[in-house]
Specification:
Elements: H1 2-15, H2 23-53, H3 64-73, E1 76-80, E2 93-95, E3 106-115, E4 118-123, E5 131-133, H4 139-142, E6 149-152, E7 159-166, E8 170-173, E9 184-188, E10 193-198, H5 201-208, E11 221-225, E12 228-232, E13 243-249, E14 258-262, E15 265-268, H6 285-299, H7 303-318
Helix pairs in contact: 1-6, 2-3, 2-6, 6-7
Length: 321
């Protein structure tokens, strides 16, 4: 889609010789345009929900709330959170999702889950693709079953996989997370997973002072400050990879790539390693073009381009239910 968007933007600008936008400038404008539309998902969805509550929205093919929720859910991910401690004695503080810890930035945390039961732990004794092999273990006796979560705790950030098959000394894994030996692991019971309640930093102090209201294994809680969360109680977070978050991530930055010039023009080449298409759906192509044209109009100081784009944006927004 990114090449189609760029070609349309260039065609509109060239129609009246308004100017040329370089690939680097286009990529910057594309990044900002996609971010604007992504942020707009949430405000538009809120408006639709308010109309549904007021019985002003349709159903079936007119159910726009469903369409928006599906677009938003494309950006929901679940990842294991990394403990902030670098020593063997881990704290109850975990980093929020970031490019360094999880490979993406979070826009909004939906929920934080805590595994409270460890079925097995140890080190692998050999390396086989998509398997955890421990000749000294007895996974059947430990009660490991398909669907449980295996964590490689020897790498940072820790990586996880789901159990796909079980034998006494071998677990089949959904992802190949053991590439060396020995590497330590833990197997968590996926059925014993509790959602932590988010509380304020002031409230958690009062909760911890009472034996009745203090967070427990079955009813954990967490506070959030800056780029970390603190999970309570300490009894369920004294080991790595027991905490994971489900959240909306920001879309990846789009990048229109090229490798050569033809008649002075760059040639699109999506085979390059740093190529990245837009992550918002095709239904947003018109919106992306309009937004990028606005940025182009400002850059080349051409009021007509900006006004044209703003008018198109107003008409496009008027079609939103």
């Amino acid at each position: 889609m990114i090449n189609s968007v760029r070609n349309t933007v260039i065609a509109i600008l060239n129609k009246n010789n308004y100017g040329y936008i370089s690939p680097s400038d286009f990529n910057l404008y594309a990044q900002q345009a996609q971010l604007e539309l992504f942020m707009k998902y949430f405000s538009d969805y809120n408006s639709i929900v308010n109309k549904e509550n007021a019985r002003m929205s349709g159903t079936d093919y007119a159910d726009f709330g469903k369409s928006y929720s599906e677009q938003m859910e494309e950006f929901i991910v679940t990842n294991t959170l990394t403990n902030t401690s670098v020593t063997s004695t881990l704290s109850n503080v975990y980093y929020l999702p970031s490019l360094v810890t999880t490979g993406d930035e979070d826009y909004m945390i939906s929920k934080v889950l805590c595994y409270s039961k460890i079925l097995s732990s140890g080190v692998n004794t050999s390396v086989v693709a998509l398997q955890l092999v421990d000749s000294s273990a007895n996974f059947l006796l430990a009660g490991v079953s398909i669907g449980d979560v295996v964590v490689n705790t020897s790498v940072s950030p820790t990586v996880t996989a789901t159990v796909t098959s079980v034998s006494a000394t071998i677990l089949g894994l959904s992802v190949n997370i053991f590439t060396l030996t020995p590497q330590s692991y833990r197997v968590f019971d996926s059925s014993v997973q509790n959602e932590a309640e988010k509380v304020s930093a002031g409230k958690i102090t009062l909760l911890n002072m009472s034996s009745i209201t203090s967070p427990s294994v079955n009813y954990p809680a967490y506070t959030q400050t800056s780029d970390t969360i603190t999970v309570y109680p300490a009894s369920i977070i004294n080991l790595p990879s027991q905490v994971e978050a489900t959240y909306f991530r920001y879309p990846k930055n789009p990048k229109w790539t090229y490798i050569s010039l033809a008649n002075g023009e760059p040639v699109f080449d999506q085979s390059q390693l740093d190529y990245q298409d837009f992550e918002v759906g095709f239904q947003n192509e018109v919106g992306l073009i309009i937004k990028i044209l606005e940025y182009c109009g400002i850059t080349i100081r051409e009021g007509q381009v900006y006004q044209f784009a703003k008018q198109e944006e107003t008409e496009n927004n008027a079609q939103i239910p």
